[in-house]
Design goal:
It contains 1 helix and 3 strands, in the order E-E-E-H. With 105 residues, it is an alpha+beta fold. A hairpin with a 6-residue loop joins strand 1 and strand 2.
Length: 105
């Protein structure tokens, strides 16, 4: 009797090569691959698979990724900057008009 799980239940990863004890061989969860590494090194890490970004949770207060709602402070800041800019420009215009009026005389 064998206590090993059936090959279909062994997860993909690097294992001692069953035909050559000097190397590690990669098991892809179905069959042995051609990929090997010297056994003098620790077992290589399995390949990294990039996560599916469509399954990344969306932070609270946001809509879809890449199309997030504007921060709450953005519009009030834009309005205040616009008011200050218009006041400064009107002050400059009045000073310029007064300066031109003085020069005309």
């Amino acid at each position: 009797m064998s206590s090993l799980p059936p090959p279909s239940q062994i997860p993909a990863g690097w294992y001692p090569d069953p035909s050559d004890a000097r190397v590690w061989r990669y098991w892809n969860a179905t069959a042995w691959t051609e990929n090997t590494a010297p056994r003098t090194l620790p077992a290589p890490l399995p390949p990294v698979i990039a996560p599916n970004t469509s399954e990344v949770p969306i932070p609270a207060g946001r809509t879809k990724p890449g199309k997030g709602a504007a921060p709450k402070w953005l519009w009030p800041t834009v309005i205040v900057v616009a008011i200050i800019t218009s006041l400064l420009l009107s002050e400059l215009a009045m000073n310029f008009a007064a300066d031109v009026a003085v020069r005309d005389f």
